[in-house]
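Researcher: Can you fold this with adenosine-5'-diphosphate in place?
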Amino acid sequence: MIAALARIGRLALAALAALGRIALFTVQTFSHLVRPPFYPREFGQAVMSVGWQSLPVVALTAVFTGGALALQIYSGGARFSAEAVVPQIVAIGMVRELGPVLVGLMVAARVTSSIAAEIATMKVTEQIDALVTLSTDPMKYLTLPRVLAAGLTVPVLVAVGDIIGIFGGYMVGVYRLGFTPVTYLQNTVDFLEPLDIISSLVKGGAFGLLAALAGCYFGMRSSRGAQGVGRATKGAVVAASVLILAANFVLTEVFFSA
Amino acid sequence: MIRLCDVHKSFGGNHVLRGVDLGVERGQSMVIIGGSGTGKSVVLKCILGLIRPDAGRIEVDGRDVTQGDRDDFLAKFGMLFQGAALFDSLPVWQNVAFRLLRGRGKRPRAEAREIAVEKLRRVGLGPEVADLLPAELSGGMQKRVGLARAIAADPAIIFFDEPTTGLDPIMAGVINELIREIVAEMGATTVTITHDMTSVRAIADRVAMLHRGKIRWTGPVEEMDAARDPYVDQFISGRAEGPIETLR
Ligand SMILES: Nc1ncnc2c1ncn2[C@@H]1O[C@H](COP(=O)(O)OP(=O)(O)O)[C@@H](O)[C@H]1O
Ligand SMILES: [Mg+2]
């Protein structure tokens, strides 16, 4: 019993310590924002790989989720004759919650893992040491461009995801559930408020930062060997996912608790 | 030029360096020998500040390496890493010209490429290699590219970490020759790590043997064979019997 409690306590302390180190890592990363040299080429490449190349997977995730959401609300709503609210609930559900969260998790799966594996491999094969000896700060050259790119492009991905998700709901609503196109769109547009959209984009930015920071942090701290790379990648994806879901709760509280 | 005084370093409970004392004079070619895992790479990384020693003092040009401007300090060095450590996302020429493409020593792209091609030629690689990715090269070619990158900015001090390990004897001979020629041309101070005795004889002015975290023996290469040190003797003759414990 005592042993079990001690174990839980140790785990909690370790998690807190890790959180502290990630926070410190974040501060260090952003401190390079105002200290040259800068690496625009690396930033451009990161925008391509984080943003542009994530579009297909984001689109697919969103269209299916929006469609499924419409079906669920219709069949669930039928129990208390509320079938008519499908467009509104799809819009709110996608924009406020599912769009940012699903995009965030897809980015954690796709981007965090690849950042962590790439940087950990560089660490294990001494490429990070080589960077330093060539007078290049890995935080400036590797971390900052990726973190910045994710923070700026993931909101765009979320916006795209929101729109495609609503479109998925629209397709199901119009072709399966018998809504007229005009009513569906009208209801969607009338119901959404600016705050819904702002919260969606802010969440996207926060999730993007978390996803990239977790990837860089775990990659940079990778232990040696192929096993080290595997552990770093796994740790990064788990941490990014948990942090994103926790941040989602906090941000939802901030935006909508009043 | 380089001086280590009583340098200690542990990783957890693993006491790797236990008081290393070593001096390298300007223009000298120092070779560090010693078994695998004795901490030879750690010594070089401590000098470069990639690893922070737990205790001891390291000076380069009479200045403590922890003081002063990091960029100025690192600009003096070139390093060939044990596994070449080429950046696999960049083509060969950008690896070689890495320092020339960014930061303080930045030059126009065309000029940097020209220098890279020239350095590649110096290590025996043609211009057709310049646009390949490191993963498309054999191990020996990667080592040569690593060598070209180490000398690209004409550093005053060059470190070679196991330049011939994993190469066939002929390629190893070629690399040894290259290192000797380049060092003679550039007048650089060098520290080379190796456990290949042919390499030692080919490139060393002075030899230091690292064993159990200390410099066990050091002296001019001509005196190595007559050293009468049982450890050195066992190492250069490659015998399994002797004071160095082996796992069998
Ligand atoms: N970054 C590190 N973290 C933990 N242990 C390390 C690290 N670098 C080296 N070591 C350990 O130090 C010892 C010496 O390593 P190294 O200097 O690479 O040996 P070698 O003499 O073969 O170059 C090894 O036992 C190795 O496991
Ligand atoms: Mg080594």
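Model: Folded with adenosine-5'-diphosphate in place. The beta strands of chain B are 2-11, 14-24, 29-33, 55-60, 63-64, 77-80, 157-161, 189-193, 206-211, 214-220.
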